[in-house]
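I would like you to sit down with the record closing this message with an eye to the fold:
=====
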Amino acid sequence: MVGELRYREFRVPLGPGLHAYPDELIRQRVGHDGHPEYQIRWLILRRSDDGDEGSTQVDCKAEHILLWMSNDEIYANCHKMLGEDGQVIGPSQESAGEAGALDKSVLGEMETDVKSLIQRALRQLEECVGAIPPAPLLHTVHVLSAYASIEPLTGVFKDPRVQDLLMHMLSSPDYQMRWSAGRMIQALASHDAGTRTEILLSLSQQEAIEKHLDFDSRCALLALFAQATLSEHPMSFEGIQLPQVPGRLLFSLVKRYLHATSLLDQLNDSTAEAGAPNNSAPEELIGERSRLELEFSMAMGSLISELVQAMRWDRASSRQGSLARPACSIFQPHLADSGLGLPVAQAQPTFRRSRRYRPRSEFASGNTYALYVRDTLQPGMRVRMLDDYEEISAGDEGEFRQSNSGVPPVQVLWESTGRTYWVHWHMLEILGFEEDIENVVAGDEYQGAMSSGALGVALPSWRWKPMTELYAVPYALPEDEDAEESEHLTQAEWWELLFFIKKLDVPDHQEVIQILQENLDGEILDDELLAELAVPMELAQDLLLALPQRLDDSALRDLLNCHVYRKYGPEALAGQLAYPPLLEAQQDALLLQAQGQPQESDDAARAEAKEPKTQCSTTPLQHLVEGYGPAGKILLDLERALSSEGAQASEVKPLLLQLQRQPQPFLMLMQSLDMPASNRALHLTALRILMQLVDFPEALLLPWHEAMDACMACLRSPNADREVLQELILFLHRLASASRDYAVVLNQLGARDAISKALEKHLGKLELAQELRDMVFKCEKHAHLYRKLTTNILGGCIQMVLGQIEDHRRTHQPINIPFFDVFLRYLCQGSSVEVKEDKCWEKVEVSSNPHRASRLTDRNPKTYWESNGSAGSHAITLRMRQGILVRQLTLLVASEDSSYMPARVVVFGGDSTNSLNTELTSVNVMPAASRVILLENLNRFWPVIQIRIKRCQQGGINTRIRGVEVLGPKPTFWPVFREQLCRHTRLFYMVRAQAWSQDISEDRRNLLHLSSRLNGALRQEQDFADRFLPDEEAAQALGKTCWEALVSPLVQNITSPDEAGISPLGWLLDQYLECREAAHNPQSRAAAFSSRVRRLTHLLVHVEPCEAPPPVVATPRPKGRNRSHDWSSLATRGLPSSIMRNLTRCWRAVVEEQVNKFLTSYWQDDDFVPRYCEHFHKLQKSSSELFGPRAAFLLALQNGCAGALLRLPFLKAAHVSEQFSRHIDQRIQGSRMGGARGMEMLAQLQRCLETVLVFSGLEIATTFEHYYQHYMADRLLGVGPSWLEGAVLEQIGPCFPNRLPQQMLQTLNTSEELQHQFHVYQLQRLDQALLKLDNTEKKIQVGHKASGQKNEKEEEKEAGVEAAAEVVEKEEEEEEENENEDLYYEGAMPEVSVLVLSPSCWPISSISHLLSPRTCLPSYLRGTLNRYSNFYNKSQSHPGLERGLQRRLQWTWLGRAELQFGDQTLHVSTVQMWLLLYLNDLKAVSVQRLLELSGLSPDVLNPAIGPLTSSRGPLDLQEQKDAPGGVLKIRDDSEEPRPRRGNVWLIPPKTYLKAEDEEGQNLEKRRNLLNCLIVRVLKAHGDEGLHIDQLVCLVLEAWQKGPCPPRDLVSSLGQGSTCSSTDVLSCILHLLGKGTVRRHDDRPQVLSYAVPVTVMEPHTESLNPGSSGPNPPLTFHTLQIRSRGVPYASCTATQTFSTFR
């Protein structure tokens, strides 16, 4: 489980070191489904980073999350809130208990006293004359405050007369009276949050309360509200610049907020009590709830509308407009190279390339392409990079310069870096010369890696995604809407439109209601029916056309920004939302239409405005308002009305009312103060107008606070004119005196320090400057209160929004709150649009010359900071602003600084200057660099970042830095809202996942409903993101959190095995496999069951997000020619997450159990292998059906099969391997027959080979190789080699650890080469013999010519001839003796081929040896064998043919021959050939005589006689008493007819081995002895262990020299007595799987002994190793072997140890 269960409570992880656990049950209600729901407070605690369970908990500012939970969720997550009977314990009623502690009579008397005191206070208040209240009134109020502190009397103070009393006291001009009222309110509000909220709400809902409250009274109520909400929503907006909201707007926001929270509380408390039965609520309760839902939606809409205006989001929204988020799944990570989601056809990108040159995709290998590029590329050609290589990225273009023999060999001038860089040939694509380049559509070369195979089979993918239809997204797409419903507004859209209808005045409201009634059959509409209307789209469009003329400016702005207007409003208006000037002009037109002003009046006004321009020069104000039309005319009219002597209120007030509706001209006037100081006349004109406006009470309602920044900019300007500054201070003083709210705003803007600096600059000669500074200073606590209130209101609204999202998730009801999407859009602003700022630090410090530190940030590349110190000690320290995440940190350098230029820079981060221990990056600076990027996209905030210059160019000591640039995102609300949204989402779904897991653990059949549950949750989140989340990052954050919180823990739970070792998902998959055959009928229950399982598995594996690579702390340096350049780290692909690991592990366990059952049941059957292949094929198809062709699950399938094979005892495993070897042998031989039958055999062979691949790396591969080697040798020697042998070995080659079959084929190739050499050798021998004959004839001829010479020389001639003849005869005798009957056969010489087989890889037994070829074979065959022996001996001794140890030939009876018998061609073995040739000279021969001649055993000779004496054979076997075994003779044709022509195959049938025979037992003994040696060696080395290579060497040495094996055991092993390193490695893998040998965690190549071996009585059969537990019990043989002092042996003379199987 992802969560942690401690102290019987479920602890949910919310982030690194952050956990939430249930603390208290707050309240309960009845949900929409009629079942009770409980609101639980979850506390958020931060745990220390060490991760120990006993670590102390760190306070997290008492943060909490309120979560509504069902009975099932509480049962699964909150055990301490359950009673002994398992039912939820309701919330405690402590207040009722305390009330009951007072005596009823005493309580009644006290209530009577309170009522009389209230009457007395009201009477005394009415009798009060003057500003100073009488003392008796104060005493009465004091006594009432004392009674108010008693909680049981709270109900008495809910009397409306108490509210009237408090209102009069709060509006009193006397401070002591207001203080007494505040004390009474504090006493009433001290009991609980509900009472405090109720009092504040009742006071705030009083009509025209703002008129009765002054600044101090309003602040008293605001302080109470701040105290009431401080602990409810402890949300921090640190680092975010909140706007300055005056107290008047804050109080209005408080009223809206209190009203909305009160309705929300009523909505939660309006349902039936907890003990009510879970049936449908009465109709009156349903109607009441519907009414409250409507009122709450309208209240929340009003609150959001006013909050957006107070935060100035509507005026400061991004001017580029919000682009619509593409319709795609929020649960799929978006990759740059693929568009996940809907299969939308996209245009392929175009690249510049010449069609004359071939791309890399057209070549079979990279080497071939590299040679092509090397031969084709010429200097001056354009090239493009195909791969990322160090500093050069894929897609960069450049110009080829030169190449040489270095590494890398190619030099290119790259445009991206402006310098040359060396790369490799295969990384380049030739674009050609500039005149040849054109734009072509890119192929697969830039879309990704191409995968192709010889057979055209697509390989499985780790990230396979279905293209379309059901599995394209993790959730099922919703059904099509009803046509009738699609023609009407949804309830959310209608309620948003109804919000504006309720904003209308009474006449306009009645008119709109009349329009609705006329279009809805004249039905009378009350409030209840109005909320449930089904409004057609046409009617909504008509209403949207009528509403703008009837709304004020604020409501009109909300209308133009709302969802329903953007969707159904006029396109001419909706399309202009991204352009504020056009929007303002449109609003002007709408307002003018609403006021009924004719168009002619506008024209006349413009004409009047233009007339003065032709008569006199343009004033500064006229120049300012040019281009603003009627809006600018208001300022001109206002200036004219105020400049006249004795300004008339009747002229100014209408203009002020227009400015209240349209504040843009007023804000423009105030913002003109932020213009340069050269506009002195404009500044004075604006200040004069503003000074006079303050005197009008209507002017105080203008948004002065929105343009106070311009006033502060003018006040701080160092070039401000003294007269302008004096007028500004006088204006601000008058404004702050008229409304102290603006003094608070000035305090928040830092006006106190600005005024102090202005006084210092002008030597204190500024009138009223000190008074203004003191006034601002006195508002310090009020400024703090305003900031706290703004934070609390915003935090409370965010919490309510998150609560509505939670209710939307729980009830699946739509969110019907107006402007809900607007609020979320502003909260998410900045999530996908990265807005950067330059000033990210608070202070820049340097290690030396601090007076020059400012040159680092002056943005002047000609200035620099130069250090003064020793080499390597220079540093620049940046103290970052709170919460700033560095997006890019850049160092500016210059190459002309030579040795002062940095060469190596290291960046460190820490919480303070004393803890700079974390190295963030290390960068080598190129000599030609100008901008060095040090950091990018940090995901953690570092308060202090230090740049250390460790080395300078050319060994310089001091350094010069031209500048430092830090770019980071502006603090927005998105990080705060993302944290809260992800916390609530994670908690909600992890609680739900735990509840669903609990249901599944109680009944596995509930797993069938998980698909529909997950589908509903994921589809709901997708719909919510599409409707309300505008940015891609926000939607992806929600989808990722939802998936991790819901799917990950569910997968972990359903894949965790129970006490029986079976997981719920494993059980479900097992059931799927069992009913797979029955599911072919689409109408069966099995088909429906299988469909649910497939939908569930495809949903679980649909999304597999990549884990982000860890932050790079050190940057490696490249090697080769570019070693001095920077090295850019390559992004690594994320490994599969825990979801995929758990699912593949579960699938592997299911497959292993299935295969194990099959092996247990059918391993002895004759058709075991075909049935196993069919079973494996079904499992493969099931894996594709359940999970798609993902390589992870295919690998899990193979591992499961391997696990089942490992659980087999040795003899059973040997039998299985023999069966597979036999099956392959039969299919290879059957494929030789050709035709349809041969093709069928090939298909069966291919299916079997796919199954056999599982043997690779297993211990069973050793025995499989043993049997395959024997059967392959029989095939090659019996019927000859075939192309199929090599093809089979190429496919299943990894299944042969010793590679013996491959070596067998290699020896055949060597034999064929020797045969060619032997043919040449024979020709050479013939040529030599003929040459000798020619030389002899020449000598004889020379002797005859010399016969006429002198007589004294005749004797010498004869002697020479005789000597020559003797030499020839002597040489011939020597040749005959060496080659033994080197005679040429008269007639057709038979073709003889000799196969030289190596005994190291060919299984040749001693009984096959041919002891005397001279006595067994005819002379014409003996001569060929003798000549081949001479050739082979000479080739071994000849240095040019073959080197190595001298080998000798041992002739065997193995092989085959073709004999001509009449018109028949007999295909026989070598033994049969010898037998038939022997009968050429004899008519009959006894079998006993043949045994004596050949020296063969009857086991070899009798199988050869059988086919010869069959019906197709040429021999007859006759039984005779004097001839044991019978007599063979050639069959007479007259006795029995037989075929006259054709080929007759008489080769003896193949004899297959049995694993249960002595040979299989010998293999088992060898394995046991090797296991024994491995354990003994590891035990001798203790816990330190041995390297695996060293262990193999020691075991092989012990096998050859040590006490194992004993001599008698070696003789009993026979063929199994040999041992190789592969056999040792196979045994090591076996022991690792059993748990007897373990790897070291830090050094996996080191092995050590894991568990002690228990000596038991010997058994003949090993136990099933698949038993439960990490170390299964083993069966042992106990042997006694004497030690000879081998390296690993101890000093004792006798050792008793155990071998096991």
User: Anything to note?
Assistant: DSSP finds 57 helices and 35 strands in the chain. The first strand starts at residue 4 and ends at 6. The mean pLDDT is 75. The longest helix spans residues 1300-1345.
